[in-house]
Amino acid sequence: MRLASAVFAGLVGLFSAPTLASEVTTFELENGLEVVVVENRRAPVVVHMVWYRVGAADEPPGQSGIAHFLEHLMFKATDELASGEFSETVNRNGGSDNAFTAADYTGYFQRIASDRLELVMRMEASRMDGLALVPEDIATERDVVIEERNQRIENDPGALFNEQMRAAQYLNHPYAIPIIGWKHEAEALSLEDANAFYKAHYGPNNAILVVAGDADPDEVRALAEKYYGVIPANPDIVERERGQEPPQLVERRLNYADPRIGNDYVIRSYLAPERDSGAQEDAAALTLLAEVLGGSPTTSVLAQKLQFESQGSVFTSAWYSGQSLDDTTFGLVNVPVPGTSLEDAEAALDQAIAEFMEDGVDPDKLARIKSQIRASEIYALDNVRSLANRYGSGLTSGLTVADIQAWPDILQAVTEDDIMAAATRIFDKRKSVVGFVRTAEETTQ
Amino acid sequence: MTRFFIVISAFFALISPAQAGTEIKEVTSPGGIKAWLVEEPSIPFTALELRFQGGGSLDRPGKRGAINLMTATIEEGAGDLDAQGFAVARDELAASFGFDVNRDALSVSARFLSENRDEAIALLRTALVSPRFEQDAIDRVREQILSGLRSDANDPNTAAIIALNTLSYGSHPYATRLDGTIESVSALVRDDVVNAFRDVVVKDRVFIGAAGDISAEELGQLLDDLLGDLPKGGAPLPSAVDLQLTGGVTVEDFPVPQAVTLFAHDGIPRDDPDFFPAFLANEIFGGSGLQSRLSQEVREERGLTYGIGSFLVNSDHSSMVMGQFATANSRVSEAIDVIRDEWQQIASEGVTPEELEDAKTYLTGAYPLRFDSNASIARILVGMQLDGLPIDYIDTRNDKVNAVTLDDVKRVAERLYRADDLRFVVVGQPEGVENVN
After folding, report:
1. Is B353 on the interface with A (CB under 8 A)?
2. pLDDT tens for each residue of B381-397
3. Touching check for A374 and chain B: CB below 8 Å?
4. CB contact under 8 A, A371 and B94
5. What are B316-328's pLDDT values in tens digits?
6. Which of A182, B133, B156, B286 could join B427 via S-S bond, C-beta 3.0 to 4.6 A?
7. pLDDT in tens, A214-266
8. In chain A, positions 342-371, which contact chain B (CB-CB < 8 Å)?
9. Cα–Cα dist A144/A14, whole Å
10. A113 min Cα distance to partner chain B (Å)
11. What is the tens place of the pLDDT at every residue in B260-269?
């Protein structure tokens, strides 16, 4: 590695861990609703979110896409609100609202002037147990969802391949199934499916309320008692029991060709452990491993070896997302310069990893990454919604508030040896899927 | 997977600002460089936004893509540092510098901690004053750009924009992509990159917004340090657009199951006295959220698309009203009919009092929510200056929204929405949709 000039050297670790300008308060209502208040008074704005502990990985067999379809339908009528009235009211009050579905959670949020918190809370509570779907809502919204699938997946060959790759990665776990649903199943979802899913998963005892921004914890508590506290716990909530992965004994290799692929690439993912409550150390080591290998487009191991030294690649990356209820993945990608075979690109990738396993972690590089992580805690204070997301997504992925708050320190404690040990465990080809993705002259339909 | 797809509007400065407490200071550095600043000491960092006017439209003849390549290479080695040395230095400071370019400006977005501000600015200065543009860096970045161009060649959204711009802008630089083509980018040499830098990154074309933990005095000194040594001049700015777009339908065959459609005709200038009525009309017609007429009719009533919106697109040299949606090839024709009817209807009937009232409460209520982070405040400040807005604009903007009457909207809608002039560009394999010129 070439060195920085003297002016800039030696600054690593100067800045201290930030004193958090955001106070976090947590409590639980009697009906089981967990509440997190992230106080951040920068602007008279509040983000109000309800996260349900249910996602696409909790769907009944044959109904892929129902979690996401229900999320769309939650904007229709409730026993107190007309169809569309929720968003109209938020809009009229200068706010914005939306929702999202992931494998492990479904979330609904509004961003609005802080003096309107009560308004959105009243409406959000209404759809926690009062959804009142009618048949007319179904067909049109299902068409919308199919167009969403067309836009996100069918029109994008890379996204189509990602679906295939994920299906190959998970032999038994429902993470194999796309969040938006397989097209043939999403097209057939019914009102009954939506209502059954709602009754089995929605209710205060399966939800987390996150209020972030210009909010006083005591006022939030009073409002939450008033609107959410009166909703009885749902006795029919179904425990999340997903089929777990068996031992994976053989590498899977996929060859995908599509005339719409612009650049050939090789991609590999490995089944990987996720962040577990009280035991996040392995995930922390994998997080830093991904940073060391592929975090920076200029100074990461893969960029240095494949883009700068051999100049055989246009783009490389490594990634790992530890926040997940069940086993997650660790990934590598190499986009070689045109004219390179994918066999050679894969060999180059493996060679780079092998050299890294020989050489170990550059301590300066690790120190820089840790400095950036510390600084990112300062920059994070500038974005209230991302602070709220941290708690909502963490708590719906099996973590506790203590786990979430401990995470930055756990990352800082990771050593070079921890990273190499994690690398030794993760790079097990028997648990991997390799994808060769290339352009094809003709479609084979 | 979110419930609706938010189509990015080119409209940033308008649907932004305002709040008691957002006090904007105009700062003039000892060396005479002007900037707008919002001081916000609660978090120990600063967001700084620079815009060099002209941007990608200043490419020299036959050198399309040179400014884009230059922008992507600025950070790949500067002063004593090569690309990796620069990245190491930047990462040690935990600063981030973003370089980007659009058709009207080259942007620099910097974020740096208070405790090492001077070092971060000294490093950024090397990139702006003495970028190295070494051949190996140019070649490496060029390969990445070419790779992006190859991917884009298969992207229906990109194809639709290219087709619309080709139809609209004649010989103006807006007619072609600032990324260039595989041929033009492949042919660029180092001198082209160096010239592109000289043509664009000049002191007398820079606009500056800053927000965060920095005083006016500190910002003034910082700007002199950062920009004081930049040259003046630059390539001549482009002239106004003579819009070539006519009503009709253009179909571009593309092998995708879902067709992407853009629709547009000329719009209303940002400084037109009727701009605010037009802004309100568009908000009602195709604005954000699912309440707009287009969303209601095309998505909510008929399930034809995941997202549809319309925008007043005001660039430095042209103004357009434009919309976008995507739907299965079999349903494009139906959606186009609905849009034409809606276009006609708002032109002939205007909007209802309820619609106008709802749009006003939304826009005036949403305005202060934009000022919630240093990063967004700095972007708003620089956007206001590029739009030629006065520094007290934030205090008067909601009054301008509220002053719009039903008659204003009716008058302006009739002028703005002309169904016969509307051009649809459909990229896909739509059924029952033919070219109409």
Report:
1. no
2. 999 999 999 999 999 99
3. yes
4. yes
5. 999 999 999 999 9
6. B156
7. 999 999 999 999 999 999 999 999 999 899 999 999 999 999 999 999 999 99
8. 364, 368-369, 371
9. 52
10. 7
11. 999 999 999 9
CA atoms within 13 A on the CB side of B269: 9
| pLDDT at residue A421 tops 90 | yes
| B3 closest CB neighbour out of A18, A21, A72 | A72
Task: Tell me, yes or no, if A115 comes closer than 8 A to chain B by beta carbon.
Answer: no
CA neighbor of B131 nearest in space, from B65, B208, B72, B205: B72
A1: buried, middle or exposed (CB in 10 Å: 19+, 13-18, 0-12)? exposed
Residue A339 at interface with chain B, using a CB cutoff of 8 Å = no
Residue B335: predicted pLDDT: 97
Which residue in the set B91, B289, B364 is minimally distant from A372, CB to CB?
A: B91
Instruction: List, for residues A261-299, the tens digit of each pLDDT value.
Output: 999 999 999 999 999 999 999 999 999 999 999 999 999
Domains and CATH numbers, chain B: 3-156+164-227 (3.30.830.10), 248-428 (3.30.830.10)
Confidence of residue B144 (pLDDT cuts 50, 70, 90): very high
Q: What is the mean pLDDT of residues A2-13?
A: 32
User: With contact defined as beta carbons under 8 Å apart, do B378 and B219 qualify?
Assistant: no
Q: Which of A71, A141, A185, A274 is catalytic?
A: A71
User: How far is the CA of A291 from the CAs of A54, A233, A413, B176, in angstroms?
Assistant: 30, 42, 15, 37
Decide: pTM greater than 0.80.
Answer: yes
A368–B88: do the CB atoms touch at under 8 Å?
yes
pLDDT band with cut points at 50, 70 and 90 for residue B290: confident
Instruction: For residue B154, list chain A residues with Cβ-Cβ distance below 8 A.
Output: 157, 259-262
The answer to whether B85 contacts A262, with C-beta atoms less than 8 Å apart, is no
Over the range B100-136, which residues count as b (16 or more CB within 10 Å of their CB) and which as e? ebebbbbbbbbbbbbbbbebbbbbbbbbbbebbbeee
Q: Which residues of B touch A15 (CB under 8 A)?
A: 94, 113, 115-116
Residue B11, pLDDT > 60, answer no
Each residue's pLDDT tens digit, A364-412: 999 999 999 999 999 998 888 999 999 999 999 999 999 999 999 999 9
Q: Tell me if chain A has a CB within 8 Å of the CB of B189.
A: no
The candidate with the shortest Cα–Cα distance to B298, out of B352, B336, B350, is B336
Within an 8 Å CB–CB cutoff, is residue B249 touching chain A? no
Chain A CA closest to residue B136: A308
The tens digit of pLDDT for each residue in B45-95 reads 999 999 999 999 999 999 999 999 999 999 999 999 999 999 999 999 999
Q: Is A386 on the interface with B (CB under 8 A)?
A: no
Instruction: Point out the residue among B81, B116, B301 whose CB comes nearest to the CB of A4.
Output: B81
Which pLDDT does position A99 carry in this prediction?
A: 96
Chain B (298-337) residues lying within 8 Å, Cβ to Cβ, of chain A: 299-307, 326-328
Mean per-residue pLDDT for A5-33?
A: 61
In Å, what is the CA distance from B174 to each residue of B157, B180, B337?
17, 12, 29
**Which pLDDT value is given to residue A13?**
37
